């Protein structure tokens, strides 16, 4: 890792910001946590942290979304729409890039975590992976050839509409789609359906089968993109619920029905795995984004493509 | 186009092969059509065509599938499994590359058509597109930054399982998944459900609403990948059924429910379009694949990413 550049990374989350100065997980020079409040206050506080640091050659920002990652758009680097007061339309990337004066990478927090898990975490050494977080929402980061899969915008695959379990006609709680994946299987959906928060719901509650089915459909869909050599599933619902992994893997295998006959997919225990980086995935993802803005692919052992 | 390399392109289809020697659609030096029979006979006939040609600097192959496009696999460039006699396990790319002695690109016929429509067709000038073919099967080619989105394998998004229309419990006819997209909306599924081939099914037949709903779910899913700036829909079911485009666009818009608030997606008539290259999309896609194997991005007006 002696070759890795020193990067300033910012994970801009909905409730807190984590700024790190690092080359990687084993070489973190500083780590500062700030509350996310109003934009002016928060961005000024981040700038003050950057002012204290020296020697970094790039900046990476992994932000809550939705954001614009479309380089062809004047809104590139902005948070586009959010219920968070003051943040809709906020230009994050250009402002912090101007302040830092170094090449700057910008993407969603979910893609950041995906990049970090691919580089240093549960999918280490793999260039093609998916990372799905199942928590207060469902987000997916898809990485191909070591880079985020995007174009017009970033993935919103947490809002796929899965086929339903026969007889389950609960309307779901996504304000846009009702019974999309997020409206069926995210934490608030579990609580809305059962009246009990997921972390208190008994392992034998029949609702888990419905949740596992929905998440199995997410995995089915991710496999069919052709991209992932491994799928990392994180977020509060997955990480806090050990019995869910075997169920979700089984739901995936049943749904695919042997259609993708590749050994990677055929071994669900190694194909669908929990994350390895915990709370550092987001800020470390910002480090990867910064390095990629320099044209440096931190991945040294990646499968070529 | 004076800068474009001369490329030998092969579209290897299930019933016929088209070989072209070309720089692009306006500069086709030769075009030869061969029947696809047994592998040895067909590949030898392709080699004989290549022997007659000179001056090409790359070879591109767009093949029926499934194929291995995983450079990390010893099966790269093989047709992996197919009911077509003799073709399962056939090494296509290495054999033809060895014979031609030039850099060789290889991918599915669907991805080939996607690349060609992005370069010269209905999505000309766009680096990030999706191409979906709805015919005897459903195939999807996703292109991001001018390159195919892939990794472990190629897209199989035609086998997504869409949410069903309330009250529709037809089991579908996909041998793996029953009521996946292909099992609900490909040509054979339409005929199996209604007893009438799609091209003879009356425009006011209620089955079309169910088919449009399923294809609307395909579009919903493709939009949520974040990739496409435009979606091209081709294949016999789409191209032969003019009334289907408005229905499919409406089904997409209804399903997304305003969630992806970008102007491109908000104008379904320009966002979801028929193909422009007809029967030449496949062989021209092979030309793009060959050029990409040379490291040449034929796309000159692509949106940068």
TrEMBL record, chains A, B:
Reactions this protein catalyses: D-fructose + ATP = D-fructose 6-phosphate + ADP + H(+)
CDD domains for the chain: ASKHA_NBD_ROK_BsFRK-like
Keyword Protein biosynthesis: no
Superkingdom of the organism of origin: Bacteria
Keyword Magnesium attached: yes
Top-tier EC class: transferase
Pfam families: ROK
Alphabetical UniProt keywords: Magnesium, Metal-binding, Zinc
InterPro entries cross-referenced by the UniProt entry: ATPase_NBD (IPR043129), Carb_Metab_Reg_Kinase/Isom (IPR051804), ROK (IPR000600)
EC number annotated for this UniProt entry: 2.7.1.4
Cofactor annotation: Mg(2+)
Family annotation (Gene3D superfamilies): 3.30.420.40
Name recorded for this polypeptide: fructokinase
UniProt organism field: Sphingomonas mollis
